[in-house]
Design a protein that fits this description.
- By secondary structure, the chain is an alpha+beta fold.
- The chain is built from 8 helices and 13 strands.
- The strands form 4 sheets. The chain has a 6-stranded antiparallel beta sheet, with helices on both faces.
- It is globular, with a radius of gyration of 25 Å.
- The relative contact order is 0.14.
Length: 306
């Protein structure tokens, strides 16, 4: 009587006989080297359930001094003074000098969607004939990588920390532009745009480890304060506010390994930790201090730090 082992061997023999690949690497190598004449589908060779991570770096707003307390002229703006008394931690999320973390953690944690545009190659047509025949030449995609607009969506908590971070960020930009607040002297002398941040975006495989796609936006800052979310009427209650925040970015890059090196240079503190706890056969503590990209063989992996 045939056993399970015999059945498995017969299936394996049949796959070999009909040249049907099984593993991901086998399928990938076949698709790169040959034509799939029967248009066979291979469910194991698709990216399914990819996991997105957004990391927004802290700008260097001159709101809180390194020794504590509000910077010069900041107390003249009631919003900043009140927010500092209620929740100094919100403002510290916008001051790079407070390096407990290089990221605006509240925004990274509450981000629910990320909108990234395509890189578009500019073309140019030449040699048009009397009948309209012409040759098209490719030029560059620079215009789609600069002067960039992106939209991020966020959930909110009970204390409206996301709203307060965005409002403080936008109000600081406006106050600097109007000459009410001055950037830190170091930033002035070194021509640093202190309210600009960077956004790192990673898409991981379902193992929550291997990086499949990554991008970086540089010179990022928000351009709208979501007051409209709090509109209400007798027939509508305000429940679990969700924001759509527009950001401007100077540059966008994707799949350039130098992005990963720059991410690691941010200097997240802590030692590498595993998201899986073998003692409980479940997830580990979700709260981590930072993240880093590691090279495992020929694969980039996103690891977290405790």
């Amino acid at each position: 009587m045939p056993t399970r082992t015999d059945f498995g061997k017969n299936v394996a023999d049949a796959r070999i006989a009909h040249n049907i690949p099984v593993s991901f690497n086998e399928i990938r190598n076949k698709e790169l080297a040959y034509i799939n004449a029967h248009k066979l589908k291979f469910p194991t060779n698709v990216l399914a359930n990819g996991i997105g991570y957004v990391f927004i770096t802290k700008p260097s707003l001159n709101i809180i001094t390194p020794t504590g307390g509000l910077a010069a002229n900041v107390p003249s703006i009631p919003f900043f003074e009140n927010l500092y008394k209620r929740s100094a931690g919100v403002l510290e999320n916008l001051c790079y000098e407070y390096k407990a973390s290089p990221f605006v953690n509240i925004l990274s944690n509450k981000c629910t969607s990320f909108d990234i545009g395509d890189e578009v190659l500019k073309t140019h047509d030449k040699g048009e004939t009397f009948l309209g025949w012409k040759i098209s030449y490719g030029k560059h995609a620079v215009e789609s990588r600069t002067g960039y607009g992106l939209s991020l969506s966020f959930d909110e908590n009970k204390d409206l920390d996301v709203y307060n971070v965005i409002k403080a960020w936008v109000m600081y930009i406006e106050s600097v532009n109007r000459g009410i607040i001055s950037p830190a002297q170091y930033n002035i002398e070194n021509f640093i745009l202190d309210y600009a941040a960077s956004v790192y975006y990673f898409v991981l495989a379902p193992d929550n480890l291997n990086i499949k796609f990554y991008a970086k936006m540089t010179g990022v800052f928000p351009t709208n304060i979501p007051n409209s979310v709090f509109s209400a009427s007798e027939l509508k209650k305000i429940d679990s506010p969700k924001y759509s925040i527009n950001f401007n970015a100077s540059f966008v890059e994707a799949m350039d390994p130098r992005i990963l090196s720059e991410f690691n240079q941010l200097g997240s503190s802590g030692s590498l930790t595993n998201l899986y706890n073998p003692s409980t056969l479940g997830p580990s503590d979700p709260w981590v201090a930072g993240a880093a990209v590691m090279l495992a063989g020929d694969r980039f992996q996103l690891k977290f730090k405790k």
